[in-house]
Amino acid sequence: MLTARAISLEQANEYVTQFHRHHDAVYRDKFRIAAYCDGRMCGVVQVGRPVARLLDDGQTVEVTRLCTDGTKDACSFLYARAAQASKALGFTKIITYILDIESGTSLKASGWVKECDTKGHTWNHPSRPRATTAPTCDKQRWAKVLKGGDK
């Protein structure tokens, strides 16, 4: 049975560094949740402000990292817990991005819907150089409207 617990940014980043397939740890977030199975941490979700400035309206949050060790149902469990916590904090929408080659099964299972496809790009530009290992491929944006969120 999966259970959820709050964890520190440092703990979440250590887990992401160890297990995430294509992203580095984050510098900051609003909150994070760990999933446990039989007392063993099996995944983390980190939620923060939307990376895209146009989506950062003060009412929307973004799952910036979700990482598991492959434990059955851990991804959908963490997406659902992230949405529940965001709603409890008064947010009205939660979004995330997945690679274009991923199916979104865990998102569908936790009530999220695909909003759109996005074109890949790099954050590194001559006017503002950035070192990142983030994928530059096309992605999908998924969202969940948090009805009845406290305002």
Task: Outline the structure in words.
The chain has one domain: Aminopeptidase. The chain has 3 helices and 7 strands; from the N terminus they run E-H-E-E-E-H-E-H-E-E. The protein has helices at residues 9-19, 74-88, 105-109; strands at residues 2-6, 31-37, 40-48, 60-68, 93-99, 113-118, 139-145. A hairpin with a 2-residue loop joins strand 2 (31-37) and strand 3 (40-48). The mean pLDDT is 88.
Which features would summarize this protein structure in a list?
single chain, about 150 residues, alpha+beta, Aminopeptidase, 7-stranded mixed sheet, about 20% helix, globular
| Tally of DSSP β-strands | 7
Point out poorly predicted stretches: none
What's the rounded overall pLDDT mean?
88
Shape: globular
Please report the first level of CATH classification, the CATH class.
Alpha Beta
Number of domains: 1
- What profile does the largest beta sheet have? 7 strands, mixed
Radius of gyration: 15 Å
The CATH topology is Aminopeptidase
Determine the N-to-C terminus distance. Answer: 33 Å
Report a brief summary of the structure.
The chain contains 3 helices and 7 strands, in the order βαβββαβαββ. It has helices at 9-19, 74-88, 105-109, and strands at 2-6, 31-37, 40-48, 60-68, 93-99, 113-118, 139-145. It has a 7-stranded mixed sheet, sandwiched between helices.
